[in-house]
Amino acid sequence: MSRYIAGPALTAVAGIGLLSIMDGLIKLAAASHSSTQVAAMRYAVGALVAFAVFRALGTPWPSLAVLRPHAWRSVVVAVTALTFFYSLATLPLAVALALSFTSPIFIALFAALILGERPNRSIYIALVLGLIGVMVVLGNELTHTERVGNTLGLVTALISAVAYALSMVVLKSRAAQDPLPTIVLLQNAFAGVLIAPLGLISWTMPATGELGLFLAIGVLGTAGHLCLASAYQRAEASSLGVLEYTSFAWAVGIGFLAFGEVPSASTLAGSAFIVGGALIASRHARETRAPDVEIGP
């Protein structure tokens, strides 16, 4: 029987696409508001949307035993959001996204260390192809220092990649045990509570027209994470992690349509490696149930 499973791979790609569109809207919002306020608004709206889905599906209330690992994961999610949103606000979209593409490497590493996954050879090939693609893109960007402009932005982009990878592996450990609406609701609610004080410090009142923008950010974030939770419930984290590279295609499209960024030849060359790696990974995504691994305090 073929080991190709379209469901988890396509669901993950859909989730990544929704989150990539959200990233473009975040960059737009960050032009008028601090990255901490944008993050706080994203999770506040996301929590409301997730709660509506939670109640509409009649999902049972989580027990205290369920709350503990999700509270710990939300700390990692909050770190991911704050660092990534800052990088989006201070770096060109292509640079921020290129650095975030290192996350599949860390996902494979954490999946092996925490979940005991053993990625097959095709996953390693996909990781190498994706990393080559990222280096092609990033090498061109870093030769134009005036286009980078913010060392702290580069550092926070890398921190967000590591934190995101850890959050995805923890998600994998919980996705086989908890309902998907519960996972997404707790992620949004807990992360929102952690980020809210920082958002209030730098708060500026959004214009009436911007409320729709923040609503769209929250809806896209919730929908994207529902897709990812569903995918990670059904396939190995190391296999799906490589599909993060597909967000590059979204970044090129969004950068061109929303910000007038025309991809360079090196950008297109890098995308060929990235997409090739993602296709290899998607053809070998193995359906699996996560082991009952308890992560966090």
TrEMBL record:
The keyword Transmembrane belongs to this UniProt entry's keyword annotation: yes
Keywords attached to this entry: Membrane, Transmembrane, Transmembrane helix
Localization in the cell: Membrane
EamA domain: residues covered: 21-138, 152-282
A Gene Ontology term for the protein's cellular component: membrane
SUPFAM superfamilies found in the cross-reference section: Multidrug resistance efflux transporter EmrE
Main subcellular location: membrane
One Pfam family named in its UniProt record: EamA
TM region positions: 41-58, 95-115, 122-139, 151-171, 183-205, 211-232, 239-259, 265-282
Keyword Transmembrane carried by entry: yes
InterPro entries noted in UniProt: EamA_dom (IPR000620), EmrE-like (IPR037185)
Membrane topology: Multi-pass membrane protein
Record-stated family: Belongs to the drug/metabolite transporter (DMT) superfamily. 10 TMS drug/metabolite exporter (DME) (TC 2.A.7.3) family.
Protein name: S-adenosylmethionine uptake transporter
Provenance organism: Ancylobacter tetraedralis
